[in-house]
Automatic annotation (TrEMBL):
<keyword id="KW-0732">Signal</keyword>
<protein>
    <recommendedName>
        <fullName>Transglutaminase domain-containing protein</fullName>
    </recommendedName>
</protein>
<feature type="signal peptide">
    <location>
        <begin position="1"/>
        <end position="18"/>
    </location>
</feature>
<dbReference type="InterPro" id="IPR038765">
    <property type="entry name" value="Papain-like_cys_pep_sf"/>
</dbReference>
Length: 649
């Protein structure tokens, strides 16, 4: 968003705040300017229908905080989702093809428009009438309160998309999916109906991609395309549910507690102020929200209505509030997802910089080397408190000064259940750390496939008789894993045999005659022919090509192996193997820089070029660390060093 657009939104918000003493509806009508007459037509149209009148008031009084963009860039973004749906091309290829058409100087220009000044009476009446139609005609509508109807069925938009008519079209397209359950007694429960709908939509194979191309919401067409990232698919399900009168919306983590990205999914409210978790991405039925297990920190529900309680708490001019919370169209729902939420209270003594009186302080989670605000509170009486925080994550407190976040404390870890905080060291004493990778190994899906793998020796080419040299019992934690063999017997044929279900995934294997040898034994590469998908770059020969970033990927889950025929019998004293990997381990020849969190931000501990599969640094004891690969790669994450091992957060 350009500075001009930001200032334009701020100006509108200041004008809204300046209308003191007036009702929310009166304030909105003043902000409508020349569009006021259109909105008053809607109110007059429903003057004799008290419930629809209240619904119209709900929409109009919250319109000042909704806006959208028009322009060629927005149109190109829609093409991205359409091509995802219609082709098998990778998102990167689609993006590259679209970017070639974005070269003219007019392309990036978008126009910002406000709902309150643009939405006309015909559009609004059509939206309200259709929302009421499905609410009243569907059996599950009896279980949807007017309050939930207003927030989770009635809204005409889900993000910053251009308002267009969509309800009738999506109703006609998807209503028949519920014909069978509509006749059953349990159809009075919206969450049961949503579960049936979700099951039907999953059979249409929604296409998930982690690649983010669009800056703006795709709009209701995303419900046709069912393609995109978790936020796009959440929008799609929201549109479809609301077109059918099922209350639903999007819950989100502004930032995950264990990764560098936000996360989005759907919810359907139940009868007990709780909700059901649902997503087009997850297998299985709807589940109660508190059983969805993920490091959360904070969870918010996207709302059409502005959170006036939060605005009252902040009570600051918009430009002094971080953009994330400047217009809080959100509701804190952490408590319905966590059984262990707690209050985080930080005293003044823990601040590196003394906060000003009533200054807004932000609870932040990390994303790479940045801190992302996930909650806001005021500094009062020598402390700041944040309620309903889900722990087992690393946080930092920041203020928003001169249009940027300023760290106010050293990072700290909050316990999941107890009101216990552990602050990371920032300078007291040093320790030596050995670093093997730059991100949590859970993003390396292939290393688990080596557990149970066997290295074998034989003097029979068919390995009908064979001896076990070593069994991998734990997942590898580094690029080059060394095993010493004490068996003095000599073998002509040596191999790695993958465990069941592993597709014999392995990147590199080296057999050495003597434990001190630096050059592996040479011979004719042998193995089970074939690779997954017919990709010849993943045949068994890749396990002996000397490249730790090529790999064997057998075409069957079981029975794959890769080996070597030495031509004569030789004893083996050492085995070195590399798991199939995604370049997360330390790469020889790459340039790295280690940082530690110190007073006021990240401090470099030095830059080095890796000459092996590990790095060694001296850093402040107990510090929070971050390793950056300047040579490439994007997956990097904060960690600490505990008992000789990296522990990622």
């Amino acid at each position: 968003m350009t500075m001009k657009k930001i200032l334009s939104i701020i100006a509108l918000s200041i004008a809204v705040m300046a209308c003191g003493g007036k009702t929310n509806l009166e304030t909105a009508l003043i902000q409508a300017g020349d569009n006021r007459a259109e909105l008053e037509k809607v109110l007059n149209h429903y003057a004799v229908d008290s419930l629809k009148y209240k619904a119209a008031c709900f929409l109009i009084e919250n319109m000042p905080y909704h806006y959208y963009y028009t322009g060629e860039e927005v149109n190109y973004e829609k093409q991205f989702f359409k091509m995802l749906h219609e082709t098998a091309l990778s998102p990167k290829v689609i993006a590259d093809s679209l970017n070639r058409g974005r070269m003219n100087e007019q392309f990036g220009r978008t126009e910002l428009k406000y709902d309150i000044r643009e939405v006309d009476s015909v559009y609004l009446v059509h939206n309200i009438d259709w929302a009421f139609k499905v609410w009243r005609e569907q059996p599950w509508g009896k279980k949807v309160s007017f309050e939930n109807f207003c927030e989770y069925v009635l809204p005409y938009r889900v993000g910053d998309e251009c308002p267009v008519e969509w309800r009738e079209r999506l109703y006609d397209k998807y209503n028949s999916l519920l014909d069978s359950i509509r006749l059953k007694p349990e159809s009075v429960f919206p969450w049961i109906v949503a579960d049936a709908l979700l099951d039907s939509l999953k059979k249409r194979s929604p296409r998930f991609v982690s690649y983010s191309y669009a800056k703006h919401s795709a709009g209701p067409e995303i419900a046709d395309w069912l393609s995109g990232n978790c936020e796009d698919l959440a929008d799609a399900f929201t549109y479809i549910c609301r077109s059918l009168g099922i209350p639903s919306g999007c819950d989100e983590m502004l930032m995950r507690g264990d990764n560098n990205v936000p996360h989005y999914w759907n919810f359907v409210p139940d009868d007990h102020c709780d909700a059901f978790f649902c997503s087009l991405l997850y297998p299985g039925p709807l589940i109660q929200s508190h059983t969805y297990d993920a490091p959360r920190g904070k969870v918010y529900r996207r709302m059409f209505s502005i959170n006036r309680d939060m605005m009252k708490m902040m009570s600051q001019p918009p430009e002094k509030i971080h953009p994330t919370f400047r217009y809080p169209l959100m509701l804190d729902v952490t408590d319905i997802y966590s059984d262990c939420e707690q209050t985080i209270c930080i005293p003044e003594s823990r601040f590196l910089i003394r906060p000003e009186r009533d200054e807004l302080i932000y609870l932040c989670l990390p994303s790479h080397m940045e801190w992302v605000p996930v909650a806001v509170s005021k500094y009062r009486n020598g402390q700041v408190s944040f309620e309903n925080v889900d722990g087992n994550a690393v946080f930092c407190l920041s203020s928003y000064r001169d249009k940027q976040l300023v760290p106010m404390t050293v990072p700290f870890w909050a316990h999941k259940e107890l009101s216990y905080f552990r602050y990371f060291g920032n300078g007291e004493g040093e320790e030596r750390v050995t670093i093997l990778h730059k991100f949590n190994l859970f993003i390396e899906p292939f290393i688990d496939r080596m557990v149970g793998g066997v290295f074998e020796g034989s003097n029979d080419a068919g390995f009908r008789t064979r001896d076990t040299l070593f069994v991998i019992e734990e997942k590898p934690v580094r690029l080059q894993n060394v095993v010493y063999v004490s068996n003095p017997k000599e073998y002509r044929y040596l191999r790695y045999y993958g465990p069941a279900g592993s597709y014999c995934n392995v990147s590199e294997v080296g057999f050495y005659r003597d434990p001190n040898d630096m050059v592996p034994l040479q011979g004719r590469v042998i193995g089970t022919p074939g690779s997954f998908g017919g990709d010849k770059g993943h045949w068994y020969m890749s396990a002996f090509d000397g490249d730790p970033y090529t790999s064997f990927d057998y075409n069957q889950p079981d029975g794959g192996w890769a080996g070597i025929d030495l031509g004569k019998s030789v004893s083996v004293g050492k085995i070195v193997f590399t798991p199939r990997n995604r370049v997360n381990f330390i790469r020889q020849g790459d340039k790295y820089e280690l940082f530690y969190a110190g007073k006021g931000g990240w401090i470099s501990a030095g830059t080095t070029v890796a000459n092996s599969d590990s790095l060694v640094y001296n850093v402040p004891k107990g510090a929070l660390l971050y390793l950056k690969n300047h040579s490439g790669g994007v997956d990097e994450r904060i960690f600490e060093y505990v008992d000789g091992e990296q522990v990622f957060w």
